[in-house]
C-alpha cells in the first residue's frame, strides 16, 4: 500500500503548516485518528489540514498542541494560516474559499459582473481598481491574484465541482474593458464551456422581471454536508446554512432557469458578443467612453 503523498511545504503558509503538523504527528508515532481522539473533529478533517486544504480551528490547534506537546506552536500559527489563505479576499469570503473546492456543484447567478472564477486578469484588475480606488498597486495585485487563483476550481480532475452559471445579458454586453480585452474575456468563458468545465446560461435583456433581479448568489452542494448559499453585495457577503432559506434560494434559482436561454443558445450568444467586440460592432450605447 503506498504511503501518504508528500506535502510541499514551500507552496505557501497553509502547506508549510500542514507539513509541520504531519511531521510532528509522525515523530510522536501517532495516526491521524489517534491525534484527533478527544476532540470534536474527525481524522479526515485533520488530513485536509495536513494537505493545506483546510484551516485549523483554534480549539483543534489547542488540542493538537496538548497531544503533541508542541508548546503552543500550532495554536500561535493557526491565525497566520487563516490570513494567508484569504490573502486577496475579504474576510467574509473565507468560508467559501474553504468549502468550494469540496463542492459537488456550484450554481451561481450574476446580474452585474462576470463570476470571479471566470474572470481574466484584465477583467479582474478593472473590477478591483473600480471598487477599491484608493488601494496601492501592490494591494490591487494581491486581490487580482486571489481571484485568479480560484480558477483552479475549473482546471483539476475529475471535473468537479459542476459549475453552472446564469448571467444576465447585460453582463456580457457591458464593456468594462476595451473591445479586444472584452473579446478575450468572453472567449475565455466560451472555452470553459466548450471544454465542459462550466454550464452557461444567459438571461436575455428582454426577459422582463424574474427571480434574482439583484445581487450575486451561489448555491453549493456537497456529498457529505448540507447545501450552502452565499450572497454578496459591494462590501459584504453572507453564507446561509438554514435549510428552509437554502430551499427558498434553490426554488428561485430553478425558476430563474426558465427565464434563461438554453446552454447551447447561451454559448452562441457569448461567442457572438465576443465577435462583435472584435469587429467593433457592439451597439453604440455600449461603446466604451
TrEMBL record:
Q: What is the lineage of its organism?
A: Bacteria, Bacillati, Actinomycetota, Actinomycetes, Kitasatosporales
Q: Which domain of life is it from?
A: Bacteria
Native species: Streptomyces diacarni
Pfam families linked: DUF5753, HTH_31
- Domain (HTH cro/C1-type): give its ranges: 21-73
List, in alphabetical order, the Gene Ontology terms for molecular function in this entry.
DNA binding
Q: What is this protein called?
A: XRE family transcriptional regulator
Query: Which residue windows are transmembrane per the record?
Result: none
Task: Give the matching InterPro entries.
Answer: Cro/C1-type_HTH, DUF5753, Lambda_DNA-bd_dom_sf
Amino acid at each position: 500500500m503506498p504511503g501518504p503523498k508528500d506535502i510541499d511545504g514551500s507552496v505557501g503558509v497553509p502547506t508549510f503548516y500542514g507539513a509541520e503538523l504531519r511531521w510532528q504527528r509522525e515523530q510522536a508515532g501517532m495516526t491521524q485518528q489517534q491525534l484527533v481522539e478527544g476532540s470534536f473533529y474527525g481524522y479526515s478533517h485533520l488530513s485536509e489540514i495536513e494537505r493545506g486544504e483546510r484551516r485549523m480551528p483554534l480549539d483543534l490547534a489547542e488540542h493538537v498542541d496538548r497531544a503533541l506537546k508542541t508548546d503552543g506552536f500550532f495554536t500561535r500559527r493557526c491565525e497566520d494560516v487563516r490570513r494567508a489563505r484569504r490573502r486577496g479576499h475579504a474576510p467574509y469570503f473565507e468560508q467559501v474559499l474553504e468549502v468550494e473546492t469540496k463542492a459537488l456543484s456550484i450554481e451561481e447567478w450574476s446580474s452585474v459582473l462576470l463570476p470571479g472564477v471566470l474572470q481574466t486578469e484584465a477583467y479582474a484588475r478593472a473590477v478591483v481598481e473600480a471598487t477599491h480606488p484608493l488601494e496601492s498597486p501592490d494591494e490591487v495585485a494581491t486581490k487580482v491574484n486571489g481571484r485568479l487563483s480560484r480558477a483552479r476550481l475549473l482546471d483539476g480532475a475529475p471535473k468537479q465541482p459542476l459549475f453552472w452559471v446564469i448571467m444576465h445579458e447585460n453582463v456580457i454586453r457591458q464593456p468594462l474593458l476595451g473591445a479586444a480585452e472584452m473579446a478575450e474575456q468572453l472567449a475565455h468563458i466560451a472555452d470553459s464551456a466548450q471544454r465542459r468545465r462550466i454550464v452557461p446560461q444567459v438571461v436575455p435583456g428582454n426577459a422582463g422581471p424574474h427571480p434574482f433581479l439583484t445581487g450575486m448568489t451561489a448555491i453549493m452542494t456537497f456529498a457529505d454536508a448540507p447545501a450552502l448559499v452565499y450572497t454578496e453585495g459591494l462590501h459584504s457577503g453572507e453564507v446561509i446554512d438554514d435549510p428552509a432559506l437554502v430551499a427558498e434560494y434553490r426554488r428561485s434559482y430553478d425558476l430563474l432557469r426558465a427565464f434563461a436561454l438554453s446552454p447551447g443558445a447561451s454559448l452562441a450568444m457569448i461567442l457572438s458578443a465576443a465577435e462583435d467586440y472584435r469587429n467593433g460592432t457592439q451597439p453604440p450605447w455600449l461603446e466604451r467612453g
